[in-house]
Amino acid sequence: MKAKLLAAAALGSLLVSACAEQPQPPRPVPVKPPTQIDGVWYLDQNWTQDARQWYYNTTQGSQIMRYDWFMALQDPQTKEPFVKSVPRYGYTAGSPSKWNPDLLPLGFVKDTDPDKTEWIGMTCAACHTGDVRVNGKTLRVDGAVTTGDLYGFISGLSVAVHTTVTDNAAFEAFAAKVLGPTAIDTKKIALYNQLKAFDKSFATFVAQSTPDTPWGPMRTDAFGMIFNRVSVIDLNIPKNNRAPNAPVSYPYLWDAPHQPKVQWNGLLDNKNSFEALGRNAGEVLGVFGKIALKPPKDSGHYYYDSTVRGQNLVAMENQLRKLRSPVWPDSIAGNIDIVKAAAGQDLYKQNCESCHAVLPRDMTYTTAPITMVPLFNWAKPDDPSAVLAAFGMICAKGVDAAVAAKMITVNYAADPKMAVDALCRQSDTGAIAGVAMPPKLLGGTPLKNPDLAATLLSNAVIGAVLGDIAKNPELIGDLLLGDDAPAPWASNTWSDKKAASGSKKTLSTKPLVTAGAPATEDHKKLATILSGAAKTVATAKEADTTSTSKAEATAKAAESLATTIKTLLAYKARPLDGVWATAPYMHNGSVPNLYELMLPVAERSPTFKMGTIGIDPVKVGVDTRAADNNFVFDTSKPGNRNTGHEYGATLTDSQRWQLLEYLKTL
């Protein structure tokens, strides 16, 4: 094993020193018209049908429950197999293909452990593939927002399992499918005890995942769920649990691999292939991926065992780099008014483009520029001690208390709960307190106890990736190969990909680590936050004035920390290509359509119905009048505020309609 790690380290060194930027595919114009397959219209997003079916049906390491159990489970409401009820929670029904022989719902997949145990899990596609209905036709938008209700699904699954272990007839039907109709009683009893244990643990998970305010469809508290999964379940520390009360919309994925930062608050850097893999590995841990968080045994086993499928994640990221935003389907949704759109283009340049860059469809691009819009104005932005004191107040007593103390004023007034939670939440690090991932020899910082939840997650993710590399150094080869790899459904081994692409091309990918910027730099900064931001400031004030170098170092550290805090207490403004297919709007999905997003806050809907796949082609957004809506969004609830982004409030109504028409063309 140590030899494998050394080999991986050698490959990593080669990658750091020799890799070049990945070539980017062109953005063709015009696009092809929509294509109908099995009653669904697919838009031209630069993916073939094989490409999307592979993406829908490739495991990333998510493991919800035993596969045979899931397929045998009955829905107590419908008396049908539970697998057929998953679309009832807003997830898309699967389509027949060679990639989906069991006709699982879209984004649900079988995951097989090395010991051949089979599990049901979720893929990226479950949350990031959206069907939209326009004028009676259903369009599939790859990379868009699902209408899935994650909490509805897990709570419904828990009810089905509990019914099976408390109703003899339900269990007998379940056992007949799992064990066969002639199974002996001793095997049935063993199966019953196993399912009963799962029922208890899964019910606990659902209880710990219950928000105070329902998320509803199309949203989840992503950070809250991931933090709970790692700090509560994987570390087995129940007191770390926090109700996931900061829901956000599922972000759309086209252009995301090209953005320098990801997550709504830009928490994670996304400048190279390693950072992309880490971000995706963290997502797996949030959707039922498993990781054994135990102190490493020795230098030859310095990693965490996990179910993360690194090679598949790299192939998925490469596939997403080819995905393009959907063009407004005028043949289905109606023609764009060119006169209005032309006037709207000027309005966009005046009011929107400074934050939301335009990515021309007829040009190749290598990055998707973003703008981080600060949530707060700091009373003394140039005084690190004042910024750190304000941050301490925000974490200890909340945003309103910091405003009342005149430490901050609200700038971009959208609900700040997600960004604040991501930076302020602490967790007991339990058994892995003091463990550094990567090891200290490579620049890692040992976990403190307690420590920032984001730092704990970073530690887990890095350990999982190291574990994958240790067991399968071909993962390094996949990172090297990048876009030069042939289609993943044609070949799944590094040696095959390398042979197919040619050895001279194996270094044409983004570097594993950006030159001059250690991969752990932000990790270290964030780790410092809970090592005592206020204490750092106090130390700076009490430092020995005769020790100039020590005082300067302390001041520099405080200044760097303050800058990091100001940077991350912000929300990301990204390019808006394809924005017509991404309702509802704002980071928390609190505005139903683009027209309302241009209104003053007081004129926006305080409540609205959602859950349908239908879109309103006039106001461009959720069809709030659709009969199949199943959730009422209440903007008065915590985490649901629809305030902020009043950049269209000063426009006339005719100007809003002009701008709206232009937004359809992006």
UniProtKB/TrEMBL annotation:
Residues 1-20 form the signal peptide. Residues 339-460 form the Cytochrome c domain. Coiled coil: none annotated. One of its GO terms (molecular function) is metal ion binding. Gene3D superfamilies: Cytochrome c-like domain. Keywords: Heme, Iron, Metal-binding, Signal. InterPro entries: Cyt_c-like_dom (IPR009056), Cyt_c-like_dom_sf (IPR036909), CytoC_perox (IPR047758), Cytochrome_c_Peroxidase/MauG (IPR051395). Pfam families: RoxA-like_Cyt-c. The keyword Heme applies. PANTHER family: BLR7738 PROTEIN, CYTOCHROME C PEROXIDASE-RELATED. This is Cytochrome c domain-containing protein. It comes from Azospirillum griseum.
